[in-house]
Amino acid sequence: MTQYSSNKNETQMQQRINQRATLPMTAQDASAATSRRVGERRQRRRSSDARRRLKWIGLLFALALTVAVLHRMLSSRTAVVETYSSALLYENAQPLDQFSSLQYALQNSKIVLLYFAASWCPMSTPVTKMIDEKLGDLLLPPPNGDSSALEQFHDLSLVFVSSDRNDAEMQQYIRRNWMTVPFDSPDRNNIKRHFETCAKKEMSALKIARKREIPTLIVLAGHSRQVLTYAGVDELREKGEQVVDHWMQLLKMSDAMKSKYS
Fold first, then answer.
1. Domain around 255
2. pLDDT for residue 12 is more than 90
3. How many of the other CB atoms lie within 10 Å of CB of 183?
C-alpha cells in the first residue's frame, strides 16, 4: 500500500512538471531567458577576444625575438661592411706601413689591437684591467732582441698608443705582453691623427676633430691592415675571452670581402 502511494505521488509530481513545461512562457521569463542568452554571447565574445589578443601578443613577441636575433647575427656583418670602406680610405690616404712602431705586431699576428688610453684617465682604468685579465695571456710578447722572437706568430697582439703626460707614466702603466709606440716617436701623434682618436686635451695640439675618445680599442687585421671594428672595448666587455673568436670571424669576413671587391 505504501509503495503504491509513493509511486502515485511521483506520477502526479511528474505530471505537474510536464504541465508547467507546456505552459506558455511569461514576458518576465522570456526577458530573463533573453538576458541570459545575451550575457552568454557576450561572455563567449569576451573570451574569444581575449584569446585573439593573447594570440597576437604571442605572435608579436615571437616576431620581436626573431628580429632581435637576426639583428644580433647581422650586426657583425654590418660592422665589417661599414668599416671596410673606411679602412680602404685610410689605407689609400695614409698606409699603416709608414708607422714603424706597428710593423712587428702587424707582421706577426693575425689581429692587432690598438689601445688608446692614459694612466691619468679614470675611464681607462677598468678597461686596462679587463684587457690584462681577459687577454694578457693571449697576446704576442714584445720583441726582446732575440732573433728567434722575430719568428713568433700569434693570433693576437696589442700596441699601446699612450696619451700619458710623460714616458715615466707610460712605462708604469704598461701591462704584460703590451707593445708600445715609443713616447717620443712621431708615430704616437700621427697614429692618433690617422684614426682621429685621442684625449680631449690633445685635440688642439694634434689639430684634429676627434671621432673617438679614450679609452678606445681599435681592432685591425694584421695581414690586410683593415679595420675590423672600432668598438673593441664594448665587445670585450660583452663577450669576455670569447671576443677573440668573434674577432676571428670578423677577420674571415673581411678577408672574403677584400677578395670579392679587390
1. 86-261
2. no
3. 15
